[in-house]
Amino acid sequence: MGVTIHDVARAAGVSVASASRALSGRRKVTPEIAERVARAAAELGYQPNAVAKALRDQTTGTIGMVVPGIGNPFFTTIVEAVERELQNSGTDLLLCASQYSPQVEARRLETLLARRVDGLIISPCDIEASVPAVLDAARRVPLVQVDRYIEGGGADWVGVDDEAGLALAVEHVIAGGARSVVFAGSRLESSSARLRLSGFERTAARAGVEVLPPLLGEFTLEWGVEAGRRLLDAGRLPDAVVCANDEIAVGLVRSLRFGGARVPEDVAVVGFDDVGHATMCDPPLSTVRQPVEEMAAEAVRLLGQVKAGDPRPAQRIAIAPRLVVRQTSRPVAAGVAE
């Protein structure tokens, strides 16, 4: 048996009720009793019963988080940023991955709710298929979406301004001399995939450059390699490729260079995220930086304001991205060179 509150009370020479009040801090005791109880608890190595505390306080001091997959460097980075923010308030994070499956995502949400988490942060894997499970969870505990969101609102969201980020990338390659451009991204199953394609198409159309059909697959390095092969096989390379994330961009650069194309002399390439492999790419990848720390801080702040089943309109907070110019694109005055 571990050390109990009865053992602490006995060692401190006080009643169990006084020991409990002293340790919880919710009701006042004299400074002398508080000191005796604290000293006894430390000497005995007393650890409060988390389950009992949760039942008593109606809180577990935990937040659940569900992301599509932790193999993607962006999601690893945002999870770590959220965890750092939660540590400031002594809150623990319980992490689950949906494996890009709405069915798995629904089960993960139920698992976290069964553990009585105080709130949820989620990046929904599918803009449409994730709707029922996310809305159900939002009726039961405070919930904030990060990076991605479900169709039709219904829950607060914090993320980067995807369309503005793609505008930065397209404007950058055009300023560098590109007259034909193509978008390499993911199938349109998430809000991020749709918004980034939309931002690309809108900016390219406004600039009047030639736009090749988009290459849509997965947010993976492997898809980037395949997209590069398809461009090489087509026999005519565009002047620039704007990618929906850095994983695609790194794979695409590798594939193009293996096929004999020079980057950026023959083809400029720009990614999106600025996490993971961007600086390790050969040559280092020009990309659009997501403000991950700011997104995490805003998501945690917003979660503290949300109430389960809140009837008010959902908030959407889009944070401005930043262009980071490295060596896979032709340098121009705009952007941050690194």
UniProtKB/TrEMBL annotation:
CDD domains: HTH_LacI, PBP1_LacI_sugar_binding-like. Signal peptide: none annotated. Keywords: DNA-binding, Transcription, Transcription regulation. Residues 2-40 form the HTH cro/C1-type domain. Residues 3-57 form the HTH lacI-type domain. This is LacI family transcriptional regulator.
